[in-house]
UniProtKB/TrEMBL annotation:
Family the UniProt entry places it in: Belongs to the ROK (NagC/XylR) family.
Domain of life: Bacteria
Species this chain originates from: Cryobacterium arcticum
InterPro entries linked to this entry: ATPase_NBD, ROK, WH-like_DNA-bd_sf, WH_DNA-bd_sf
Protein name (record): Transcriptional regulator
Pfam families assigned to the protein according to its UniProt record, in alphabetical order: ROK
Amino acid sequence: MSERHQPNGGTVQGSSHDDVRRHNLSVVLRLVHRSGAASRSQLTKVTGLNRSTIAALVAELVELGLVMEREPNATNQVGRPSPIVSVSEQVVALAVNPEIDAVTIGIVGLDGQVHRRVRYPTDRSPSVVEAVNIAAAVIDGMRGELETTFKVVGIGVAVPGLVRAHDGLVRHAPHLGWVDEPLAEMLEAATGYPVLAANDASLGAMAERFFGAGKGITDLIYLNGGASGIGGGMIVGGVPAGGVAGYAGEFGHTRVSDSDRVDSAGIRGTLEAEVTRRELLEVLGLAGADADELEQALLASTDPLVRAEVDRQIDHLAVALAGAINILNPQLVVLGGFLAALLAVDPDRLRSAVAALSLGSAFGSVRLSAAELGSNLLMIGAAELAFEGLLDDPAGLTAENAGSAD
C-alpha cells in the first residue's frame, strides 16, 4: 500500500497510484485556492513532492481547466524562474442566502472573488418555495453569462437556521418559519445545478478563516448578526466544531440578561433577544440596509438615542463574548453583519466590557476583529461549500460537467 504526503507532514494511505494522484491533485488545488498563487517551486517545498510530480499535477489541473500557469515577473535570480500557478478565473460557484427581508444571489470565483451579488428584497419572510423561485429566476437571468464565461461547479446556500449536513434539509429556520424543508433538493430541481446547504454563520466562520481575518488562525469564534438573529461558528484546533448533528455555535441563545425579552426559540434574556438589527434600524429611521450600509449610518449618526441603543447592545454582546472566550480560549473573535457595525462604532467600549468579564489569561491572548469580507462574507462562505467536492476530487470534474446545468 502506498503513502501520500500531506502539507502538514502526515501521510495518508492509498490503495493505488490513481488514489495517490487524485489526493495530490486535491492538495495542490487547495493550496492555490486558499493561499493564492504560488510558484511550482513553492508548491514543491510545501507539499514535499518532487518537481516532476508537481509539474505533472499542475499540467493535469491546467488540462481540467482548474488552474492557470504564467511566467513570473522578471527577477535578478540566477537560473530559470519557476512558473506561477493560480486558480482559473473561469471556475465559479453560485451562492444563495435567503433572509427574512431579501434573497441574495452571487457568482463567486474559485479565487474567492465575488463577480456579482444581487440582493432581491422581499416585503416579508419568503416561504421556501418563494425563496427557491426567486433564486432560480435570478440565476436564469445570469444563464447567458454563466454558460459563455464561466464553468459553474454548483450552488451553495447559507441558511439562517439549522441545516442537516448530509442532505441540506432545513430542520428549523425560525425567523423564516421553515421547518423540515428540502431546500437543497428543491433548488437543485429548479436550476439543474447540484446544491449544498449549511448554516450561514458556520459558513461565515469558514470564509473568514480562509479568506478574511482568520488566515493562519487555528482557534477562532465567529458571530454573525443578521436580519434573522445571531448565530456563530467555531474553529477549534484548526477543525470546524459542528457538534454531533452540525448545530453547534448557536451563540444567539446564550443568556445575557434577566429581561423578559424572548428570542426565536422562546428563551428569555438571550443575546439574540437583546441585540437586534431591527432595533438599530428603527432608531436610525431606516426601513432596511445591508451590513455595510448599516455600519455607515451608525458611524454617521449624532443622535443620542442611536448612541444609547448602540451602548446597550454592546454591553449585552460583551457578556456573550466573555463567556465564549472563557470557555473556548480562542486566538481570535470575528464579528460579522451588524455585530461588526457595533464594534466599529465603539471598539474601546466593547473591548473594555469583554475584558471586565473575562479571565485575564484568556482575554490577554485573544483579539477582537470585524469580519474582513463585509457583505460578501456569506457569498464566499456558501461558495466554499459548493467548491468542497471539487477540492476533494479535482479529477472528478470533466469538460462535460464543469460548466453545464443540463
